Amino acid sequence: MNLWKTWKTAFDAWENNTAQMLDPIVRSRAVLEPAGFALSSAMKIKAMSDRITAAWWGSLGLPTKQDQERTLHKLNTLESRLLDLEEQLEDARGQ
Amino acid sequence: MNPPRMRGVFNLARRAKQGLPHVGLTPADVVHTENKWSLLRYRARPQGREPGRPIVLVPSLINRYYVLDLMPAKSFVEYLVDQGRDVYIIDWGTPTAEDRFITFDDVCDRVLRRAFRVAAKTSGSPDVHVLGYCLGGTLAAIHAAVRPERIASLTVLAAPVDFHDDGPLSRWTNTRSFDLDALVSATGLVPWPLMQAAFYMLRPTMILQKGVALADRAWNDEFLDGFLAIERWGNDNVSFPGECYKRYIERLYRDNALIADAFSLSGQRVRLSNIRCPVHAVTFGHDNIVPWRSAARLIDVVGTEDKTHLRLPGGHVGAVVSKKAKQRLWPELLGWWRARDGAEQPILIRREGR
Q1: Beta bridge partners of B223
Q2: What pTM was estimated for this model as a whole?
Q3: Angle, to 10 degrees, between the axis of helix B221-234 and the axis of helix B206-217?
Q4: ipTM for the predicted complex
C-alpha cells in the first residue's frame, strides 16, 4: 500500500466519523435557532432599508422597483391568460 | 508523487484550459415558451420513434433541467431517445426580479397543464407519461391528483411527499426563528446560494471529500468528465420565486399539508388518493436531501392498484446519472413505461426494501 492510499484510507475514516459527529450538531436547535435568528435579522434590515428607499423614491412620484416588477408580472400573467383563451377556443372548435 | 497522482495533476491542468464541460447536448427543439420557462422536445433517433406515449420530464424548480441530459453516455434523455422514445423536458429558465410574484399554483397548475397539453398535442397522443425528479416529482404528483386528464402514468424520482421526515432540511425550515416572510420580502427571489448553503449543511465535510476524490481519481478521464459536469450542474442553480417558495415551505415543509390532504391547488383540495394512474416511485437509500421514507410515502397514499416502489442504493443525484443508473434504473423505467404502453411485458407490482 503506498503512502497516498494509506492517507486516503485515514482521510475517509476521519471524514465519515466527522460527518457522523456533525450530523446531530447541525440538526440541533442550539445551532439552527441562532442561525435562523441571524438570517431573519439580516433579512428584516434589508427589507426595512428597501422600504425606506422605495418610500423616498415614491415620494418623488417615481415608480419603485416593486411597482415595475408588479407591472412586468401582470404583463406575463396577461400573456399566460391569452394562451389559456387560445386553448379554450381550440377546444371549443374541436368539439 | 506516484504516477497516477502526477497524471491527475496534468489532467486537471489540461482540463482547466478547456473550461467548463459541455452539458445538455442531446439535440432538441423548443416547442413552447412562456415567460421564462420552455418545453423542449428531443429529436428522434435516425431510425424514428417506437410507438408509445411521449414522456415528459419535470425537473426540480431550483436545478437546471440538464441533470437528466448531463453529457453523452451519462444522459438519461439520450438513453430514452436512443431507445426510440419521444421525450419532452421542462426547462424552468432563469427567473428575474418580477417573477417574485409567481405562485405555487402558477407553477404546479398552469405551467404543468400547458406543458402536458403541448406535449400531447405535438406528439399526437391523448396523454403522456410524466416523470418528476425531486421537487419536480412533488409538483407532478400534486398536479396528477387534481388534473389527471393528460397523465397516463406518474413516475417520481426522489420526490418528497412526507415533509416531516426529521431530515436536516425539515428541521431547518421548522426552526422557529427562521422568518419566512422576512426572507421573501427582502429577497424577492430566494437566492440559490442560500439554498445551496442549506444543502452543504447536510454534510459539512462534503467539500473536502470532493476535493480528495478529485485528487484521487483525476487521472481517470471518464471520472473527471463526469465529476466536472456534475459540479457544473451543482453550481448552476436557479433562484426560487418568493411567493412560490413561501407556500412551498409554509404548507408543505412546515404544515406537511400534502400528506394530510390539507393542501390545495388553484382552490381545489389535493388528495393524493385521487391519483388513479399507474405510479412508480423510485427512492434512493443514501439520499440525504430527500430521505427515502419521505419519497416512498406516495406509494402508501395513492389511489391506484398499479403502483411500484423501487428502492435503489445511491444518493440523490449520483443514483440518477451514474454508470449504475444506466445499467439498472434507466432500463427499469423504460420497461415500466413500455409495459404500460401495451407492450407484452407483464405489469409488475413490486415493493422493495420496505
Answers
A1: none
A2: 0.92
A3: 150
A4: 0.88
